[in-house]
Automatic annotation (TrEMBL):
It comes from the Eukaryota. Pfam families: DUF6698 (PF20414). This is Uncharacterized protein. InterPro entries: DUF6698. It comes from Armillaria luteobubalina.
Length: 313
């Protein structure tokens, strides 16, 4: 019998776990009466998420100046004005609200106003790094939004990392995305990459939710809401399509392979919830169809008039 090392044994277990699609209902249904076990599971999940978050933060923070360049092989950071002599300025321009960008470029004193707190930088104002300046139009706040080159580079470094930030390549390098079985880009993915970018651009030495008047939680939720509050909005659909094209070379996202397709026993908690939701959606659709048919029938019917005799007769 062939013996295996501890590492080989651990990798085999990890491989098997990656084939499973374990959901929260499945995890917690095992510990319905064991609150201590539930707390342990939650703690481990929290620690794992925190470790992954820290890893992404360090990855982005160390490469942020490279990501700012359109082409890392040929471009260099150049100062737009003689009085602008610090790399910090480049980072400040990226953090500056898009609506103030023209003032930033035109007024040498604007940077000092930002530093003095006379111009508030808050999460409610989209920073310029979210925008593609080539696509942005002054009279259209949505134009170019969420298509900034810096944001795109950071996103790919996190989810499609090749360890070399100059070698991002769409579907050729989607290692992290495949491991996490990402098939479509969502507002949460974009918001996560955006917050990592914002932190890397700020002057903080460690992760913080607050940078002066800028609140990271508010920023994250605002970006998610752009896509989830009105999912049928044309801008939201087009922007998600653009991101899927950027990452997976397909506006519809990555095709789910046979090995990634998951099946669950009919009596499992996952299957039962899915069946209940499907039945509810079907019932609502049928009720709406019947209501529409009744309304159309009533609108198309001839009006009925009661017979009456002339009062004079």
């Amino acid at each position: 019998m062939k013996t295996t090392s501890q590492n080989e044994h651990s990798w085999s277990i990890l491989h098997e776990l990656l084939q499973c699609y374990i959901t929260f209902p499945q995890i917690f249904s095992v510990y319905k009466t064991d609150q201590i076990a539930v707390k342990v599971v939650i703690h481990e999940m929290h620690e794992g998420a925190k470790e992954a978050h820290t890893t992404d933060t360090n990855k982005v923070w160390h490469e942020i100046l490279t990501f700012i360049l359109e082409n890392p092989w040929t471009d260099v950071i150049s100062m737009p004005k003689p009085h602008m002599v610090s790399t910090t300025l480049i980072l400040a321009v990226s953090c500056a609200p898009q609506m103030y960008l023209s003032d930033f470029n035109a007024n040498p004193q604007f940077l000092q106003k930002l530093a003095d707190g006379k111009v508030k930088v808050m999460a409610s104002y989209w920073p310029s790094f979210l925008y593609s300046q080539e696509l942005h139009k002054l009279d259209n706040i949505e134009s170019g939004l969420m298509k900034g080159n810096l944001l795109s580079q950071v996103f790919k470094h996190i989810f499609c990392s090749t360890r070399d930030p100059t070698k991002q390549g769409g579907t050729k390098h989607c290692n992290v995305a495949r491991i996490n079985q990402m098939h479509k880009i969502t507002g949460h993915h974009i918001a996560y990459a955006t917050c990592q970018t914002r932190y890397a651009l700020c002057a903080k030495d460690s992760w913080t939710k607050h940078d002066g008047t800028f609140d990271m939680d508010t920023f994250y939720v605002a970006i998610v809401n752009l896509f989830e509050e009105y999912p049928e909005d044309e801008w939201a659909k087009a922007t998600l399509g653009w991101w899927n094209e950027e990452v997976f070379s397909d506006a519809e996202g990555r095709v789910i392979t046979n090995t990634e397709k998951q099946t669950h026993p009919p009596k499992s908690s996952v299957a039962q919830m899915a069946a209940a939701r499907a039945a509810h959606v079907k019932a609502c659709a049928e009720a709406a169809k019947m209501l529409t048919a009744d309304l159309e029938a009533n609108l198309g019917a001839e009006p009925e008039y009661e017979d009456y005799e002339d009062e004079e007769n």
